Amino acid sequence: MRIGIVCYPTFGGSGVLATELGKALADKGHQVHFITYQQPVRLNVFNTNIFYHEVRVPTYPLFDYPPYEVALASTMVDVITNYDLDLLHVHYAIPHASAAYMAKQIVLEQSGRNVPVITTLHGTDITLVGRDKTYEPVVTFSLNQSDAITAVSDNLKAETYKNFPITKDIEVIYNFVDVQRFDKKPFDAFKKVIAPNGEKILAHASNFRKVKRIDDVINIFAAVRQQLPAKLLMVGDGPERHSAEELSRSLGLIDDIRFVGKQEQMEEIMAVSDVFLLPSEYESFGLSALEAMAASVVVISTNAGGLPEINIQGVTGFLADVGDVAAMSKHAITLLQNDALLATMKEAAYKQACLFDIQNIVPVYEKLYSRYCRMGNCFETNDA
Ligand code: GMT
Question: What superfamily does domain 179-354 belong to in CATH?
Answer without folding.
Answer: Glycogen Phosphorylase B; (3.40.50.2000)
